[in-house]
Write a structure and sequence with these properties.
The chain is of the alpha/beta class and 817 residues long. It folds into four domains: 8-137 and 355-419, Response regulator (Rossmann fold, 3-Layer(aba) Sandwich); 140-258 and 263-288 and 430-474, Response regulator (Rossmann fold); 491-540, no CATH class; 552-816, Rhopdopsin 7-helix transmembrane proteins, CATH 1.20.1070.10. It is 42% helix and 15% strand. The chain has an eight-stranded mixed beta sheet with strand order 7-6-8-9-10-17-18-19. A five-stranded parallel beta sheet has the order 2-1-3-4-5, sandwiched between helices. A hairpin with a 5-residue loop joins strand 17 and strand 18. It is rod-shaped and about 160 Å long. The N and C termini lie far apart (154 Å).
């Protein structure tokens, strides 16, 4: 059997008689101790006991209660104990951080472990001052970051801040305000809620709070982040409740609350309407329901009053009745029947399921039990003291438990793992709870999300939006809480002078830039292969643009090239067939053939400009065009010089006869062509053309083109052709009136006039065109100038050869002369 000797004593704090929910905390403590004492696997031959003392949320009472633990029971002599049956092992408490801190200042001196089941400010978490403190709730900073993630999730950037008006509230604001600013969130106001005080001062405090009620009327601020512990939140609730009696407008907000929040009412609040908090969101420490707890609470009866010093006060307040054992005036109250059921009470007064704080107490008791068990196992291996056949755990001291607490890891009866980090803080997550209230004063907690502080950055918060129920004033539409309307895609935010950064104007994106999300700080450019749409909301893939064979313009040019090439080939064949006739022999047949072949190549080189540019075509197109055209112009110049020299050689005593012949003509053709070829070779060596893309000239298109590499060399090629054309035109112009039946000078003059006109107009037109139209201008210039040479020089001769062969007869020529 177990020993009835109380070898260990767990002491707990925090009972406010007027707050019924604290009674569940007591029940959680009793239930955990009962389970442990009935479990033979934990602390065999030992029993846990406990004291419950009240701090009344007042520092001097907290210190007195703590020192009372260090005294002999019933005799307040601090640091003097003569009761060997009561061995103080650990303290569980308190509910609010101020109480925990006050207890910790004494606990640290005596080094007995303190497990706080309520909140504890992270700024207060100084391990040099609170070295014996262990938190059954995770660090508050995790909740703050969770709220920031929640605000980001719903795009709420203009919120109200509620903080209790004490040191904890100051520390909260010092921590949260910079965190909000760093994450692009602003506060429209800070409302300091009053801390708990004595009842006679409460009315004055509520009236002073109502003087700031106008702050809550900001229609743009629909989300409010509330920080405070249960006593101060009761004051906030009172202020909102009394505002209705003063005909003040109702406040319809989304209340975002930390884990300290609950709707637990004192006696006078049990019938108060809680509809104002409908749809609130809170972060609560993740908890499970221990099996058997509901059965345990169902077994509670007023007959426990003889051994439960708290049930009478609770039962009389809960059911507005009087227990028969009461020594007070019971005439004004009905007598309890003893058949009242806790489950019939409003949930604001008592919840049958274990709440978060009660669950923390439950885990704290188990943590102490497991630590004692581990210490017992460790001590039994080294040292035992046998007294009357039983093992006495004589040498267990509170300070010895710290090394076990720091490394504790166990699973409670609900299947949850319990363990601390290196700072003595419980490693656990938070549940996001949506509070759904009803007109009859009841409420339901609905789990709508999860906050896991150990998750990768950015994935800590998960929210199920479809499960959230908003306040009825929002008609189940996601509330908006921003300083001004969103800047929609196509616009960017522009700061308002003198306002917070969350308040801004919307400016249209500059040309060529977009914004594809709401409230973007700046617009951005599209990738090179995309361009903005008309509304500048998204990027659209650019269309590749080049002069292709399939489009009408490219197809037309191709037909012209084929036609002119066939005509040139036909003329060449005709001249070859009639090569012995006078009109073909005149002006050097070889030059005629060279000119026709070069014109044929000029027509064909236009095809290099059609189709998608490639590395080879970019290298060849301008080079081929320049060399072939220079050969044509050099041949025309050679023919013109031949005509002039022929007439000059007919004059008596002229010495020009020695210049006549093929040598001079060939020299002119070769020198003219070689000079242009030399320019092209230098161009290829220094800066050759290459395929390139142009995404700026034409909106919505990627122009596939050939970059000329060196524009200077390109214009050198054109200038050289212009020089040859000018010389040919000048020589032909002066020889145009020389008498001869087959004098080509007048035709060459006209052809050079066409050539020069085309290429003089080419330069400005080319420079003013973009994309494939630049290529089209150059192809048109090549075809038109080549066709001008072909038509002006050879069509008259073909007319004679084909249609008037009688004129192409030596006898006819002699008769004319």
């Amino acid at each position: 059997m177990r020993s009835e000797v109380l070898t260990n004593l767990i002491k707990g704090y925090q009972l406010i008689a007027s707050n019924s929910q604290n009674y569940q905390h007591i029940l959680a403590l009793v239930f955990a101790v009962k389970e442990i004492n009935e479990n033979s696997q934990i602390l065999p031959n030992m029993s846990l006991g406990f004291y419950i003392l009240n701090s009344y949320y007042v520092a001097r009472m907290t210190y007195k209660a703590t020192l009372n633990l260090l005294s002999t029971p019933q005799r307040f002599v601090p640091n003097f104990r003569c009761d060997s049956r009561s061995n103080l092992i650990a303290v569980i408490g308190g509910l609010v951080s101020e109480t925990s801190a006050n207890v910790a200042t004494i606990a640290a001196n005596y080094k007995f472990p303190q497990l706080t089941y309520g909140s504890f400010s992270s700024v207060q978490d100084d391990k040099t001052l609170f070295s014996s403190l262990y938190q059954m709730v995770p660090n508050e900073e995790h909740q703050y970051r969770g709220v920031v993630r929640l605000l980001h999730h719903f795009r709420w950037t203009w919120i109200g801040l509620f903080a209790v008006d004490d040191d904890n509230g100051d520390r909260f604001l010092q921590s949260v305000v910079p965190m909000l600013a760093q994450n692009g969130i602003c506060y429209s106001y800070i409302f300091r809620t009053a801390k708990r005080t004595y009842m006679e001062e409460l009315i004055d405090i509520v009236i002073r709070q109502l003087e700031k009620y106008q702050l809550l009327m900001d229609e743009k601020t629909n989300a409010c982040f509330v920080y405070g512990e249960n006593p101060s939140l009761q004051v906030l609730r009172m202020m909102l409740f009394y505002a209705t009696f003063l005909a003040l407008p109702l406040v319809d907000k989304v209340w975002i609350i930390t884990s300290q929040w609950d709707f637990h009412s004192v006696s006078i609040q049990r019938l108060w309407d809680i509809q104002i908090f409908h749809g609130a969101l809170s972060f609560t420490v993740h908890s499970e329901q221990p099996p058997g707890f509901k059965t345990f609470t169902d077994s509670i009866k007023p007959s426990w009053a003889k051994r439960d010093g708290f049930i009478q006060n609770f039962w009389e307040q809960a059911f507005s009745c009087s227990l028969k054992i009461s020594n007070g005036n019971v005439e004004s109250k009905k007598i309890s029947t003893g058949k009242e059921k806790l489950e019939s009470l409003p949930r604001t007064f008592f919840e049958m399921s274990m709440t978060g704080h009660s669950y923390n107490i439950y885990n704290a008791v188990y943590a102490v039990a497991h630590v004692l068990h581990a210490a017992y196992i460790s001590a039994s291996k080294h040292r035992r003291s046998v007294e009357r056949g039983r093992v006495s755990f004589r040498y267990a001291q509170p300070w010895q438990l710290h090394c076990f607490l720091k490394n504790i890891l166990f699973n409670n009866s609900a299947g949850e793992s319990v363990y601390f980090d290196k700072n003595g803080e419980l490693i656990a997550g938070f549940d996001v709870i949506n509070w759904i209230t009803f007109p009859n004063g009841s409420f339901v907690r609905v789990k709508v999300g999860r906050l896991d502080p150990q998750a990768p950055l950015g994935n800590e918060l998960t929210i199920n939006d479809d499960q959230i129920v908003w306040h009825r004033s929002f008609n189940q539409v996601l509330p908006i809480s921003v300083c001004n309307d969103n800047c929609y895609p196509g616009y960017s935010r522009k700061k308002k002078e003198g306002k917070k950064f969350c308040c801004y104007d919307c400016a249209p994106c500059p040309e060529g830039m977009i914004s594809n999300q709401k409230d973007m700080d700046t617009c951005f450019k599209c990738p090179e292969d995309q361009y903005p749409n008309k509304d500048q909301k998204q990027c659209i893939p650019r269309v590749k643009s080049y002069l292709s064979y399939q489009e009408p313009l490219g197809f037309t040019f191709t037909m012209f090239v084929i036609t002119f090439s066939l005509i040139t080939a036909f003329i060449l064949g005709t001249f070859w067939k009639h090569q012995d006739t006078p009109i073909v022999k005149a002006n050097n047949r070889t030059l005629t053939y060279i000119l026709l072949i070069s014109l044929l190549l000029c027509f064909l080189c236009s095809l290099l400009f059609i189709g998608q540019p490639g590395k080879v075509t970019c290298l060849l197109r301008q080079m081929a065009f320049g060399i072939v055209f220079s050969m044509s112009l050099s041949t025309v110049l050679a023919k013109t010089i031949t005509v002039v020299l022929a007439f000059m050689a007919t004059k008596p005593g002229s010495g020009m006869r020695k210049w006549l012949g093929k040598r001079l003509a060939n020299s002119v053709v070769l020198s003219g062509s070689f000079s242009q070829a030399s320019i092209c070779i230098v161009w290829l060596i220094t800066s050759p053309p290459f395929p390139a893309t142009d995404t700026h000239s034409v909106n919505g298109e990627i122009i596939l083109q050939c970059n000329e590499g060196s524009p200077f060399m390109f214009y050198c090629v054109l200038s050289y052709m212009g020089f040859l054309a000018t010389v040919s035109f000048t020589v032909a112009f002066f020889a145009r009136k020389l008498p001869d039946s087959f004098n080509e000078a007048k035709f060459i003059t006209f052809s050079m006039l066409i050539f020069c006109s085309v290429w003089l107009s080419f330069v400005p037109t080319y420079l003013s065109s973009k994309g494939k139209y630049m290529v089209a201008v150059e192809i048109f210039s090549i075809l038109s100038s080549s066709a001008g040479l072909l038509g002006s020089i050879f069509f008259p001769k073909c007319y004679i050869i084909i249609l008037r062969p009688e004129f192409n007869d030596k006898e006819h020529i002699k008769r004319r002369e």
